[in-house]
Amino acid sequence: MSVINLIAQDRLKRQQLARKARLAGLAWFGVVVLVAVGWGGAILYVGALSLQTARIEEEMVRLNPTVQALKQVQAQLNALQPTVTTLQNARTETGRARKLLQHLSQHTPAGCYLSAIEFGKRSDPKKPMEVVLRGTADKQETVGELMLRLNQHPDLEKVRLDFSQERTLGETQSAFDFQITAEIKGTAIQTKEEKKDGGQQ
Questions:
Q1: Which tens digits make up the pLDDT trace of 120-168?
Q2: In this structure, are residues 115 and 136 in contact, taking their beta carbons and an 8 Å threshold?
Q3: Burial of 88 (0-12, 13-18, 19+ CB in 10 A)
Q4: Would you call 136 helix, strand, or coil by DSSP?
Q5: Rounded to an integer, what distance in angstroms lies between the CA atom of residue 12 and that of residue 7?
Q6: Residues in Cβ contact with 154 at an 8 Å cutoff, skipping those fewer than 6 apart
Q7: In the beta sheet, which residues pair with residue 105?
Q8: Which fold has domain 87-187?
Q9: Rounded to whole angstroms, how far apart are CA atoms 108 and 149?
Q10: Residue 14: its H or E element
């Protein structure tokens, strides 16, 4: 009987070894399959990336003339920018002058005759532009009335009388020559420091 048990035990050991060998073989086969799948996936991924890179390069070659044309247009715009800025400033100043002349045509008091208007005068770039009005009035009060009406204009500030001088026109008549100066709001050129200070407030 003991011989049968040894055979059974030997058979059991062989079966366990065969099972372990099969499991080890399956494990190695699984590892090989996983490695093969990994390599295959990596190769496919690299192939897809290469294809995508080729498409992107092809698209870049196709779009290169458009990019160059855009760069040329941008360079032309940059070259024209000072001219555009000058024209915009001229348009703004012309609009201001037109509004001022319209205001003067409607609000100049009777007996006041303007002989010269100097628009855009500037003694210092950091100070606002000035408008200088020269003329003749029948009396001093008319000059004061003109100054009051200029103060009502929305674009003018700091209206001042530079001089007023009486002139005789005959034995009984006289007139007053005058010069009035006013600053134009918003025309002072700000330095970089002033712009920064103004932006922080």
A1: 777 777 888 888 999 999 888 999 999 999 998 888 888 899 988 888 8
A2: yes
A3: exposed
A4: strand
A5: 8
A6: 185
A7: none
A8: Gyrase A; domain 2 (3.30.1360)
A9: 8
A10: helix 2-107
